[in-house]
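Moderator note: this is an archived Q&A kept for reference. The question asked for a predicted structure of one protein chain; the sequence and the answer are reproduced below.
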Amino acid sequence: MNSLSRRKFLKISGATIATAAVLAGSAKTFVKASKKISERKGLEIIPTYCDLCFWKCGALAYIEDGKLWKVEGNPADPLSNGRLCPRGTGGVGAHYDPDRLKSPLIRKSLRGEEKWIDVTWDEAFDYIAEKMIKIKNEYGPESVALFSHGIGGSFLKHLIRAYGSPNETAPSFAQCRGPREVGFELTFGDVVGSPERTDIENTRCLTLIGSHLGENMHNTQVQEFSRAVERGASIIVVDPRFSVAASKAKYYLPIKPGTDLALLLAWMSIIVNEKLYDAEYISKYGTGFDLFVAEVSKYTPEWAYVETGIEPDLIRETAREMARYKPASLVHPGRHATWYGDDAQRSRAIALLNALLGSWGRKGGFYQTHSFSIPKYPYPPYPELKKESVHNPNNKYPFATGEQISTGIREATITGKPYPIKGWFVYGTNLMQALPNQNETVEAIQNLDLMVVVDVIPSEIAGWADVVLPESVYLERYDDLNTSPFKEAFVGIRQPVIEEPNDQKPNWWMAKKIAEKIGLGNYFPWKDVEEYLDTRLQAADLSLQELKTKGIIKAPQQPIYFEDGAEPEFLTPSGKIEFYSSQLAEAGFDPVPRYTKHPDPPPGYFRLIYGRAPVHTFSKTQSNPLLKDMMDENELWVNTDIAEKYGLNHGVYIKLKNQDGVVSNKIKVRVTERIRTDCVYMVHGFGQKSRQLRSTFNKGASDSELITKYTIDPLMGGTAMNVNFVTFEMEA
């Protein structure tokens, strides 16, 4: 089920290059390699790509008299289309952030006390190398693990594999999109991917289930959503909270949290029983349809009403609305899909609903992606692995294939089984906010002999490290090439547009220097990252200098819809869309999703739900001075009737206590009718506890701190976190 092998790659020659037509308007562009950027005069515009979310939008950085002035979208980039989201345009603040890490640090007291000694880079690398060699000799190389997020971790991944460890993970699988990818792959034989292959700009009916476009600011999708609304597409929004997207909807369904699968089954029942599905598409591409119909036809709207609180007539009306516009009817797969523990099955239900509508591979549904093929660097072979990864012992979660379970590595670090994990490298991810149950993360850390954190700010996880390495922000460094699968194949470059203000360094340099210290310099044979990039590009008949100048190189457009000549391919065991999954049946799971009833909040408690803000990325941008000005703390959404019952006034501060007695920081109440009475809502990423982040310390409340309970998805090991309940603690 490795999705990478299922991409269609293109070999592009230099003759097929499409240039970036608009870079600087009338501005003059300077390229003077002999001078530092900060020493140049005049206006220079340098292309790069953004790092403030996984979308990796192409950007143009404006440098005036050697100072970083602004960042905007690159018009030649298919992801940004010349526009950036608020986080992207606020990227200038990342460079000027006063709370940035400035030099390497080594811990001088107990872990978590945030007491440090400033050291040189050589001293930091000597410390790390000594520990890595000791761990390798005593436990084996497998006992070091890497947690990373984003493309910047690619060189550290290379280091860890060269060292001999198979243990490399990202919270983005088990804590975010993993259930979605598994559900769609079980159905269509391929994943949704990143960026999502959703053809929102051409859809005639868009259904959003807990997907907050406009708040969850994925640039291309938001631009396409705006265009879809402008041209009158029918919008259906399912959410316990009246989100920004809900304000654009023709139909808003304020569902009871935890019952989404009941609604999905009822929708499919109506479409099946009223024969509203795309019969020709299903006959041509589907298998197991009769068994599927026998299972889902029993879920009536009246049954679903009892579970969801949604009126039967509204369920019927919205099901018919979806079917009316098929196949240009898209039920959005979402991204953060770890909700209640049956998430892979819920995501599979979303995939099956799209299959009924005939939307996979069709215009206005899910397009077929293409990627630019750039050969890998010709490294020596990695050492043979002597042990399997610890993330999923005995294949406990049989569909966690292709990507590793981050909490599985954490559990192995706690228990020492199937073998000890004694070293962690953490790159670009604040595990205190990303993983559920912070106490378990701390328990794992205390079992380590080495913990290295690479970050641009002193995040909470950095406070627990033995060594903290200050990274250059994305505007100050090279990273690997961006060849994200999309509607058209392209390659983009991230390059320095300004120098680091202090003693920060790029991740590729750190990985190379550590490798040399531990005798693995042969795995980093290039003298610098420019040589590495140029070697790869030349193998594809491209030029580094050309890419640095243009920022984006595109391939000729290829068909992306079945109706336009894209070749249908379903990499399932049957080679078809699997309405009835033999894979699931053979593994002892429901071959067609079934509804699971989830616990309700106890009396006096409310389900805690959380989400995103358009101006922040997880917990990594709160100290950015430009973005902080727009939102410096989060708020707690409380229904008006509940606020009146508890005597809560708009703007007052309270604390929250969860079902396990954990009490939050104070948080400002937002009294609103835009949320159900059985839940409360806050934006994720606030309430940070790092004392080194002086501008954000204890600002707002942390949802992560309150997420002490989680339920594990039995198919793929995802950690469901919408299972926590809170009550109010009045702030004096």
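Archived answer notes: Confidence is low (pLDDT under 50) at residues 1-33.
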